[in-house]
Amino acid sequence: MKTTIYIIISLVITSLSLVWLNQNSHTNKTEISVIRDLTDTFTSRPNSETILHLYNFTTDKWSEGDFRFIEVTDLNINNIYLASISTKSLFLRNDFKRKDEIKAFNAKVDTIITEAENLTYGKNNSAIYTPVANELNRMSKNSSTTKIMLIYSDLMENTDKISFYNKSVLNSIKKEPDKIKQYFESQIKLNPLNGIKIYIIYQPRNTEEDNAFSIVSGFYKQLFESKGATVEITANLN
Predict the structure, then answer these.
(1) Of 48, 90, 179, 182, which has the most beta carbons under 10 Å away?
(2) Which of 38-47, 91-100, 105-114, 117-126 has the lowest mean pLDDT?
(3) Total structural domains within the chain
(4) 16 in any annotated domain
(5) Model pTM?
(6) Domain with 52 in it
(7) Is residue 79 a part of any domain in this protein?
(8) Alpha-carbon span 87 to 94, nearest angstrom
(9) Comparing 30-39, 86-95, 174-183, which segment has the lowest mean pLDDT?
């Protein structure tokens, strides 16, 4: 009888231990992709302190993180700057080393964002959709717990194939958005974007820009949300 009770107690303790290990070894991962438009000199600028706060290391210091900074220029293929922080298994974790790892990750992200201010801004043309769509499709395939894209741009596509500065095109975006959607998706088809949070960040300078941005950002919001993403349009990221 005593042997049976001992076995039962041992099994319970083992089961509880396995549950505890499973709960405490689970690692959250946040990935943030910043799309930075270099074609407009007046585009809102990313702030490293605000962006780093999104990783929430103060609450969960063992969470993992990926940071990607993608330039938007007049070309479809642009520079990408990376930073990442991983974690170790439960039994190999060291609190003191973790503080240094987080500090190093924060410093690298801050350097990437700060050095971006030294880049040349202002281009005659701008290719917005292709780099954004490529990055969203990449993110859609990842298993990160939290996926965030920050788009710092007026979203004004202006290539040799299509220009949102053309009044007839802007009118089509407003009245026939499916026509523009079909054109874009004929270039790059978007994957399902469920679980991705997208912030479109821009501060218009006048009523003309405000009107154009309202039409274009509304189009993108509908496009991304039709694929399952959550979209917020804002003048700044608080």
Answers:
(1) 48
(2) 117-126
(3) 1
(4) no
(5) 0.85
(6) 27-234
(7) yes
(8) 10
(9) 86-95
